[in-house]
Amino acid sequence: MIFLLPSQSSPPFFYIFLLVLLTVTALSAAATTQSKCKFEAIFNFGDSNSDTGGFWAVFPAQHGPNGMTFFKKPTGRATDGRLILDFLANSVGLPFISPYMKAIGSDFKHGANFATLASTVLLPNTSLFVTGISPFSLAIQLNQMKEFKLRVDEFYSSSSSFSKGWSQLPPPDIFGKALYIFYIGQNDFTSNLKAIGIEGVNQYLPQVVSQIIDTIKEVYKLGGETFLVMNMAPVGCYPALLVQLPHKSSDIDQYGCFISYNKAVTDYNAMLKKELERARSVLPKASLVYFDTHSILLQLFRHPNSTHIDSLRKRRTVGEKL
């Protein structure tokens, strides 16, 4: 797959637009229909990068400036505006995808979002109230997906329920016509860096990849056919990590990012891509799309001034320890 990179003078919104454009293009190539990319629903698995309100539906306490620029109020998204998932849904003609955990105001006719802020791929061995890691790991999100499908099938098999005319659930054949998105794994990488270091984190990253592949296979058994898997962002450029974690100046590149952390991310992404290629051989009806968000996001960090983002090199000096 070929990815175009924007110029250094491109505005921030261009990067979001490019992500969506390239994603839709990739999905169009992978879709079974020959005319255009058309999905009737989206089912999303993820963390804060794609949580549209699941976490805050369970632990309601969100306040501004979240949601201020577009929704004009907090909506459960860990941003002041919209997420890539929101733009992607809109680009394929779907409304915003409702959080599975949100009981009031949700509409599941076009899918459900199982993502929650701070989620991990692997089951957490700690509590939310101790480390801030969400209890809704990928395995839990998969169980929610299975329960959702079970309830949909039960609803339409019951004439009494169907006669009530409640229209917030999708038809039972939706699962083979939906797009399944996986944008998760970042918290498995970052949550234990301070405790066990990059060497320790590297030891269990193969388990993270394996769990993602196994989950895709489980969803495939439920009728899923089209899967979009986004790789990991260059977390070695995250200002929070640069400030919080001890490091030497020799581990910082010319753009102010961790060399060792970004190398580990690159290795992880290569592993994920390789395992997805292997999965294609055992999932004959599936379209598996590996999407390289890493390359585009890296440009944001490497050229922050051209996109109106504060220079990371200035932030790095605040927490640098030699």
From TrEMBL:
Keyword flag Cytoplasm: no
GO MF entry, a single one: hydrolase activity, acting on ester bonds
Entry annotated with the keyword Iron: no
Signal peptide extent: 1-30
Keyword terms: Glycoprotein, Signal
Pfam families for the chain: Lipase_GDSL
Family: Belongs to the 'GDSL' lipolytic enzyme family.
The protein's name in its UniProt record: GDSL esterase/lipase
Record organism: Cucumis melo var. makuwa (Oriental melon)
